[in-house]
Amino acid sequence: MDTPPSIAIVGGGPSGLVLARLLEVSGITDYVVFERDESSTPGPNEQGGTLDLHQDSGQEALKRAGLFDKFSNELARWDAACFHLLDSAGKTIANFSDVGNRPEIDRLQLRRLLLESIPQHKIRWGHGIRCVERRKSDKSIVDDDGCIIHFTNGSSATGFRLIVGADGVWSKVRPLLTPTRPVYSGKLYIEGKISHNNPSYHLAHELVGPGNMLVLGDEKTIAVQQLSDGHYRVYFGLVAPENFYQRNISFDANSSEATEEIRSRLLSDEFFAHWTPRMKDLVENAEGPFRPWPLYFIKPETVGWDRSVAPGVTLLGDAAHASTPFVGEGVNCSMYDAVILAERLVSHCGENTMLADVENVKLEAALAAYEKDMFARGQDLIRRSSESGKRLFSDNASHLTLQMLNGDI
Ligand SMILES: Cc1cc2nc3c(=O)[nH]c(=O)nc-3n(C[C@H](O)[C@H](O)[C@H](O)COP(=O)(O)OP(=O)(O)OC[C@H]3O[C@@H](n4cnc5c(N)ncnc54)[C@H](O)[C@@H]3O)c2cc1C
């Protein structure tokens, strides 16, 4: 007979799925993943870019999960670790043929790799969380009766020993632990695509090759990266109000009219009108529908909570420490959170165990040990990314970034 799960992982992104896989390989199998997406088929708003996995974090997570060989042999693009830095006049500032052991993988391939490593019945698709509520028989936390998860479809679930919020920047689990909320960074990306038959494809290929290009200057950026099927993603980075995208479209956001409205705004004096023609080509030809990514972060000093606040509940990844993406470590840090949480659960509660049978004190000790490590790592990432964001969007961005890459600042 199936034992009801004692662990609820909320969110089937990189951090939640790595945790699920690590629990599976450790023999802690009484878990379930609640994911708001309706199925594993990528939705229209799913992020489709590429991620470089770092040796000590993202790659380490895949090693512990027993997935590194498949990643390395079949999916990792080792030749994509090349990086070109240009200024807004189109002048090459630096070419790095190899930025080190940082192979790229499409975000969607990473998700598929992780999904295929977990028994499918343990993922409950179409289970978006509306909120998590703590049931108390009175005001005292000592008489805690556990938590109830309310889903957006009107159903609910209860009886979990551990709830892990891995539900990203707008986590619905986080309010149980801390009142902190993500704040807007003042910067956003607008994402477009350059397919094989795009008039700018050859230009992108010449400039970027199999890796990444970053063009910086005048408080703006253009980032271009190749994906596994050879097409390019292009990200226009702006300093702009949070609602920039909505304010500048009068049509449905997915329509070609909306794309053209945003394009003409990007080509205006305020943004890329004075950039070199080759860079403007990328703006003129990028395919829509453009997708806005307003960038949020949690203030580092507000990352953290007292363990006594919410027994049996914790957060992973962006839910705990959302940062801007300016050091390219968010996913690596999030996957590593899952490594540490799984490791602490095993060391305090044991391998091949049912969490239902574990004493509270052991579970809380595991969570405290995990959080001590995670809070510091998350705060450090947010701070470094904010600093990097200041550099990337400064007047003198390309030179400051080169100094940083050379280790001079
Ligand atoms: C534009 C952009 C570019 C980036 N580039 C990079 C990069 O190059 N390198 C890098 O390391 N990082 C990058 N990041 C950061 C990286 O994407 C995140 O740090 C990482 O995805 C966090 O993983 P996660 O599992 O914690 O959360 P997420 O990836 O956000 O996953 C959360 C999961 O929870 C689900 N979910 C959300 N809400 C609910 C709910 N209420 N109920 C149930 N399920 C829910 C979501 O559908 C999703 O599956 C980038 C971020 C952005 C915005």
Salient structural properties:
409 residues; alpha/beta; FAD/NAD(P)-binding domain; D-Amino Acid Oxidase, Chain A, domain 2; seven-stranded mixed β-sheet; five-stranded parallel β-sheet; 17 strands; binds flavin-adenine dinucleotide
| Strand neighbour order, sheet with most strands | 5-4-13-14-15-12-16
Radius of gyration using CA atoms only: 22 Å
* Helix-strand string: EHEEHHEEEHEEEEEEHEEEHHHEEHHHH
CATH topology call of the largest domain: FAD/NAD(P)-binding domain
The backbone outline, from C-alpha atoms, is: globular
Q: Profile the largest sheet.
A: 7 strands, mixed
The kinds of small molecule bound in this structure are: flavin-adenine dinucleotide
What's the tally of helices? 12
CATH level 1 class label of the largest domain: Alpha Beta
Question: What is the straight-line distance between the termini?
Answer: 60 Å
Given as residue ranges, the uncertain stretches (5+ residues, pLDDT < 50) are none
Mean of pLDDT:
93
Count all strands and give the number: 17
- What count of domains describes the coordinates? 2
CATH architecture of the largest domain: 3-Layer(bba) Sandwich
Overall SS class: alpha/beta
Helix content: 25-40%
Going by CATH, what is the homologous superfamily of the largest domain?
A: FAD/NAD(P)-binding domain
> What percent of residues are in strands?
15-25%
